[in-house]
Amino acid sequence: MSVQLPESRPFKVSFPHMGNYSIPVKTLAEHLECEIVLPPKMTRRTLELGARHSPEFVCIPFKYNLGNYIEALDKGANLLLQAGGGCRFGYYGEVQEAILRDLGYDFGMVRLIGGWKLRDHINDFKQVNPRLTMLRALKAYKLALLQTRALDTVEDYVRRNAGFEVEDGAFEEVHDAFLGELDTARDKRTIAEIEERYLGELAAIPTERPDDLLRIGIVGELYVLMEPFSNLFVEKELAKRGVEVHRFVTVSNMVEHGGRKATAHLDDLIAKSGDYVRYHLGADGTESVSMAYQLMQQGFDGVLHLKPFGCMPEVNAMASLQRLSREHTFPILFISYDAQTSETGLKTRLDAFCDMLRMSKQRPGTAEMADVAESLATEAERSTA
Amino acid sequence: MQATVGLPRSLLYHKYHVLWESFFAALEVQTVTSPQSNRAILARGIELAVDETCVPVKLFLGHVDALRDKADYILVPRIVTLAKDETMCVKFLGAFDVARNSVPGVRLLEYSVDVKNGIHQRPELCRVGETFERNRRKVRRAYDHAAIEHLRYTAELDERQEQALARPGIKVLVVGHAYNLYDEMLGKPIVDFLGKHGVEVVCSEFHDTAKARRLAERVSKDIPWTYNKELLGALESYRERVDGIIFLVTFPCGPDSLMTELCMRRVKGVPSIMLVLDELQSEAGLQTRLESFVDLIEAGKKRALAGGGAR
Q: B101 and A58 in contact by Cβ < 8 A?
């Protein structure tokens, strides 16, 4: 981890967006006791700004992060946080810093890389806020984690049910209200109360679940899975097509399986991958294959595999996934995101995918299933060409 | 009947072929190496690979396939880490599973190195050797002999670099991974073309790993990939002694996309270009760029001489 403080005072902290996780991250950043400047809501401009100043074929999360930073710096932020992951994501910070410096910004950066030892984090954060105590920091981490769990529980419910609402937008309305309240909740009891109340409200929304509903699981790279703007709101698009959507990559799950338990979790995933993976493939690759295999066994209708264009851990995973799809005639739709991916293209592909799944459900002959899998395989090849 | 082991002429082969060849030779196991990369191998690789796979991995799958029916086993090692606090590009993590799932009907022989978690090369490669030779001591001796041969070879490569640097004339440093630099279809045409135009080519070989890591920090503190650290070490070690630098990158390499971005911003004072190679490479386009780069260096040198004289 490295800390570089800006010349200017007072500190104004900012960090990139990822889904609605800016709520817990903000809570976490509050222990730094300085002003927090959230980057503006993601727009096309965010991506354009980021893409303009990024290396040409770097993966798309880099471009979104950079766009967020530029927009936050323009809003007055001067201290940026960057975390990182198990692939080149972990190396974003240093390169982004160089790019932003060359653009002439005066800012500092805290790069949380190389392990997740709480004590190290706190020692580094003390450089930002000298009054920081272990107790204060622990409290912030704990609260942020509680908010994250509440957020993931509620959003999981929305994903599974929003597709069947009788009245358009009913789920979104409750979801938005929930986010507003969660944003200001700062103690354990309030967070628990909000979660329970909103789960109740969501359950009370009238829904109609058809007999032939589709159950689709989403697997893939964590950023495009968790940032709806970057995946062109694929979950909402599926919901519009009457799909029960399941997704397992969430920050709660990452915390649950991270740290000391990481190796055991990977071993478990490999053991449950039907021999489609024997060694860890890097970052989220192993999980993508193992989850797809498990979902197939659980009788899901299909799987969506999402990744940024050129994401190597997920490209590794695709070799296994394509074989899995072929050998078990299990439909998997592969979607790759870059700065040019179009919404229309995505919608057409989702339409076709859902139609094919429905058709094969109505006439569950093996021949049809084979057709579906085969046309998907050819389409997957064409789409990435 | 003695078994034969196939060595795909790609990826780690360009780093470890001396080690592997001497190891198996000492065990009296026959090895077969796939031919130099060619159009057919690349075409087959493209066919077998997921579209977005980087060019070196496409070639790798082509090479694995080229060994079908030529060898009883095909050696596909997997390397996770070679040092603490470092990592390898994920294609080396996935190489075995990707080959297993993409190339049907071949028998792979794998070993997995993860130094960070205490899994070292010696016992792993020895385990592979025990498939062919029951006498464990003999296997270990074979490994140690091979390891010495490997060191001798890398020292020779370093020496060759120094010789190239000592020669007069225009010198260009080509910064690229060994699996690209020495590939018949990727780096070789570039090195040959430069040679034909009277340019002394210095490759980014640098095997004093401790020193390479120290030097790499001048450009990048955080870079996690072992091979990129070595490239940066070579860059920092040679750059003041060359007239130009070519960054040789294959599409869409993740580590290199970030490393070259940083290099372009931080390495000043030497003319440099980035060449991105993909599977649709046209030779003419590449040659034009190389020619103009060499012209630029020559013109700059002349101008420096003239300017120096005037003052």
A: no
